[in-house]
Amino acid sequence: MCVVEFRIDRRSGVATYLQIVHQVEQALRLGLLAPGDKLPTAKEVVAATAINPNTVLKAYRELDRAGLVEARPGLGTFVRKSLARPGAAADSPLRAELADWMTRARAAGLDREDVAALAAAVLAETFGDHAPADHHATEGTA
Q: What is the pLDDT along the chain (142 residues), one digit of tens a residue?
């Protein structure tokens, strides 16, 4: 069982419950969470992040509505569905190549915002988007 640790950025301008939703989605895409894994209880998230328990419950309800998790009364909230694809797994060769690229970008003097802007531009070009990538594509990991 994988326990996700939420990181809340109060300066991001992104609603706290959405930060939780995005971090769970990211963990599901990376294969860090799998069907059957239990999410931390609202009480555990509150203790670790000092956010309102209703915020955690709102995030979990949103994930439930999306069919990604299910609440089991008296037991907790469990992952129902994975979003992982082989190329996106935490141990995939593509991730290793991207990590290497990030190291080179940092060595070239790029900061986090430079890398995020560059990645957003390439994502938009590659996937045919005409608008910059949305904010959660560059958030921290779960």
A: 456 899 999 999 999 999 999 999 999 988 889 999 999 999 999 999 999 999 999 999 999 999 999 999 999 999 999 888 877 766 778 878 988 999 999 999 999 899 989 988 988 898 886 554 444 444 444 4
DSSP 114-142: HHHHHHHHHHHHHHT-SSPPPGGGGSPP-
Q: Whole-prediction pTM value?
A: 0.70
Encoded tokens for 101: 């690229």
Measured CA to CA, the distance from residue 72 to residue 137 in angstroms comes to 30
Give the Å distances, CA to CA, from 109 to 48, 103, 104, 114: 33, 10, 9, 9
Query: Residue 19, SS3?
Result: helix
Q: Specify which residues 69 forms β-bridges with.
A: 79
